[in-house]
Write a structure and sequence with these properties.
- This is Gfo/Idh/MocA-like oxidoreductase N-terminal domain-containing protein.
- The chain is an alpha/beta fold.
- It folds into two domains: 152 residues, Rossmann fold; 187 residues, Dihydrodipicolinate Reductase, domain 2.
- It has ten helices and 17 strands.
- The protein has a nine-stranded mixed β-sheet, with helices on one face. Strands 3-2-1-4-5-6 form a six-stranded parallel β-sheet, sandwiched between helices.
- The relative contact order is 0.15.
Length: 357
């Protein structure tokens, strides 16, 4: 039986992982099914008030990884790494040298290509089994999109357009946010999705803007855009606006003979997805993708004991996501100009880069 260890009780650790783990322990599909993990949940966070607001007894908080190791050894542990991407390599190395192998790592896998190479070396040296948090890849909605593409019902897939918008002023303007650019916040989800649906790709354009709120400015945390050309001929545009007045998580698929629009759940407040194919009515269904992702991940880890063969994972895909984002950020760095005209342009015109790569 496995036991969770959460490193970092911020928004993702406390607000998402801990909540979903509780639901995962009580599988609603079959009351006779043994739980995938046992408790208590151990957490590492140096802030003394990190567990403030959580129900009493929900988590055992420790201030250091060594203190957590005195309560939970590496063998039964599944470690949820919920720290910012800028500290990813350091945290993974500290876990690896202590013998932890089964890791659930928040996206993105690394902050840049250099950090990715270091993590790849750690993975090989210590036999790490890394599952990058990718709920969209485990979502029922994505499964239906795969089936739609494979069926040929609307002909060949020609283009993908992803919109990931949400107002993120409070977190982005904090000095300890930990995300260097708007490319690092939402785009890792959608890039993993488009690579899964349309195959490998190369970047053809990129743009980024600052986040502004009155006199406050956070460089390169406003909006981001990335254009891709897939090896199979599909073109993709991903746009993420962290200064948007409303939330949106949608994917538009353009086929030879029609269009499909997929709407992913906007938050953990409502887990319903919608799919509209052609002129048909919306298909509405529940889609708790993070729960599905963690169930699949714990099941994979349980199938092969620590020290055994590496469980099948999507590491290569997430490594490609990091490389694409790294190329986009490097080409946008230090370049000025305005995005080209068109309905998908980013809405802040100051400190903008638009390049062909």
């Amino acid at each position: 039986m496995r036991q969770p260890l959460i490193v970092g009780l911020g928004r993702s650790g406390a607000g998402l992982h801990l909540h979903v783990l509780r639901n995962l322990a009580r599988d609603p599909r079959d009351a006779r099914t043994p739980p995938l993990w046992t408790g208590p949940v151990i957490a590492v966070d140096p802030r003394p008030d990190a567990a403030a607001g959580l129900p009493p007894g929900q988590v055992t908080l420790t201030g250091t990884l060594d203190a957590a190791c005195s309560l939970l050894g590496p063998a039964p542990a599944v470690v949820h790494v919920c720290t910012p991407p800028a500290t990813r390599r350091t945290v993974l190395e500290e876990l690896a040298v202590r013998g932890f192998q089964d890791l659930v790592v928040e996206k993105p896998l690394a902050a840049d290509a250099t950090e990715l190479a270091a993590i790849e070396r750690l993975r090989l040296r210590y036999g790490l089994r890394i599952a990058v948090v990718a709920p969209w890849l485990a979502a029922e909605l994505t499964h239906r999109l795969r089936l739609l593409i494979a069926s040929g019902r609307l002909g060949r897939l020609r283009a993908l357009r992803v919109a990931q918008h949400k107002p993120r002023f409070l977190r982005s303007l904090r000095p300890d946010d930990g995300h260097p650019t708007a490319f690092d916040v939402e785009m890792p989800h959608s890039l993993g999705l488009v690579l899964d649906l349309a195959g490998p790709a190369r970047p053809t354009g990129a743009a980024v803007t600052d986040l502004r709120c009155g006199p406050e400015v956070r460089p390169r945390m406003g909006s981001a855009r990335l254009d891709l050309c897939h090896t199979g001929g599909v073109s993709t545009r991903v746009v993420s606006d962290l200064a948007a007045p409303v939330r949106e998580r949608s994917v538009t698929l353009t086929f030879e003979r029609g269009v499909a629009v997929a709407h992913y759940p906007l938050s953990d407040a409502d887990d319903h997805a919608q799919l509209i194919v052609g002129d048909g009515p919306p298909e509405v269904f529940r889609d708790d993708a993070l729960l599905a992702f963690l169930r699949r991940t714990y099941t994979r880890f349980a199938a092969t004991p620590p020290g055994g063969a590496r469980a099948r994972d999507d590491f290569a895909l997430h490594a490609d996501v990091v490389r694409l984002l790294d190329q986009a950020k490097r080409h946008c760095a230090g370049r000025a100009g305005e995005p080209r005209g068109g309905g998908d342009d980013l809405n802040t015109k100051e400190r903008t880069a638009d390049v062909r790569v």
